[in-house]
Please model this.
Amino acid sequence: MSKPYYDAADLRKFGKITEWSEELGTKFFDYYGKVFEEGALTAREKSLIALAVAHTEQCPYCIDAYTKDTLQRGITKEQMMEAIHVGAAIKSGATLVHGVQMMNKVNKLDG
Amino acid sequence: MATKSLQKLGSDLAQSNKQIEILSNGIFKTGELPTFKDKISETSQFPIKAKKLEILQINVGYMCNQVCDHCHVDAGPDRKEIMTRDTMRQCLEVIKNSGAHTLDLTGGAPEMNPDFRWFVEEASKVGITDFIVRSNLTIIRANKKYYDLPEFFKKHNVHVVSSMPHWTRGKTDKQRGDGVFDKSIKALQELNAVGYGMPGSDLKLDLVYNPSGAFLPGDQVAMEKDFKKALMDDFGIEFHNLFAITNLPIARFLDYLIASENYEDYMYSLVEAYNPAAVENVMCTNTLSISWDGYLFDCDFNQMLELPVNSKSRHISEFNEELLEGRNIVISQHCYGCTAGAGSSCQGVVA
Model:
């Protein structure tokens, strides 16, 4: 039971998911690759979005992958941290905006 | 940041055979990753053969005013290997009689060789018009005797290629030493002032970007755009092109990879990014590297690993272009650094 659930080396094996479901896996990776191509957004902008989302999703593999990807694009650590704050602000905002629902309910029940 | 060379520190990794041993054992010995030879054999690209010689890259000495973290030369102020005027004369004989059209001077800081200017002037006399000097920029500000280098470069229409790891002070100084960023900016402004790097100018000024850590360089075009915008906005600096170069796992960079436990991941990154199209144009196919003491190598990296050319012509004194052309390039696992992604060479991407 001492083995951790996550192993950083497993990220390298990501491509292997195709072996047990070739068509779906291949379609996913094609889609994935296409999403990150330069488009209406630059590849750099997409990388920063991915870094922020990696944190809100709390995916350790994604965090490893996009920390490296943003570094490769010359993105500074200040920019990386600000991107994560954007994710964090949306996460906390999403929690707090539900406070309105609580307030509505209180006003209805205990008006 | 480093202050002494690995050689001065007496490190094991100052020995080239120790580096080759590391690159040949471990994950490559167990077969976890394919050796470079096996990888290029998959696409029938082994052996890599030298084509017609175009560029002579001469390392005029390992002495440098900086001690950069990633340096593949393990250069620094404590390195005493310096090319003599006699060896330079032998190089000039070769330049006169060979088909090479470009003379690429590197080091160390090539300008620190006491005969650097003499060599450029003499090479100019024998008809070389395409000079590259790999300048670290700070040398121009290091001492009064170097202040007029921009004018000297201009006089001989030297193509200046300079390292600039980032457009921010923090990332630059971390890799190259405190104060390097400010001095580099000043030097770039002085080069701009004499006409270097200006739009449409024949005085070529290119910058070299190489990553500050255990990751590969990003897209060269995108990086160039970012560098141009930041250097113009912040300092009014112009330059022509940015070359994105991959750090090869040798010397000080190898030492760093091992110490930071990034070696295996980095080798995986290089192998995963392997691009057979880059193999076609690796720089060893048209460049010959000459060491401070006149020996011939396929590239500056092989020079540092002391892997001599696979030819009977091994020294500048016995240079034979016919023998060298078509020779098999000497390879090891560090070669993955030149074939990752869009490829990497002293002139930037190759694929």
